[in-house]
């Protein structure tokens, strides 16, 4: 069992195949400045939720700025992910998600920290709606 606020290797979205499927076949929604790609996964993963973060090089030319944004996204996800992992475990679901920062301005941590719970809450709601529609 993973520690409550960890974001270890088994939780990270590393599979190229799964990432390509996520961007091509997955669903998306926006909680500005975050764009969330998600896809329920049929096969069993080693962790209920696989998550990735990123930002575009079009918006941030310097790698140091892109790395800072990704670090802030990872930290916000790490502290707010418990509701999502609890939902996935309780319903025996496996989900791949990717958080993309789409604003052109370097964010403050407080902005990312305030938007991440909204994005995760909306994601849980949409996953629940899909589950109800399939039954």
Automatic annotation (TrEMBL):
* Single annotated GO MF: tRNA binding
- Keywords of this entry: Endonuclease, Hydrolase, Nuclease, RNA-binding, tRNA processing
Entries under SUPFAM superfamilies matching the protein: Ribosomal protein S5 domain 2-like
Signal peptide extent = none
Q: Which GO BP terms sit in this record?
A: tRNA processing
Q: Does the keyword Iron-sulfur apply?
A: no
InterPro entries, A to Z: Ribosomal_Su5_D2-typ_SF, Ribsml_uS5_D2-typ_fold_subgr, RNase_P, RNase_P_CS
- One family from Pfam that matches here is Ribonuclease_P
Coiled-coil features, chain-numbered ranges: none
Name the domain of life.
Bacteria
Role noted for this protein: RNaseP catalyzes the removal of the 5'-leader sequence from pre-tRNA to produce the mature 5'-terminus. It can also cleave other RNA substrates such as 4.5S RNA. The protein component plays an auxiliary but essential role in vivo by binding to the 5'-leader sequence and broadening the substrate specificity of the ribozyme.
Spell out the protein name for this chain: Ribonuclease P protein component
Organism of this sequence: Panacibacter ginsenosidivorans
Q: What is the lineage of its organism?
A: Bacteria, Pseudomonadati, Bacteroidota, Chitinophagia, Chitinophagales
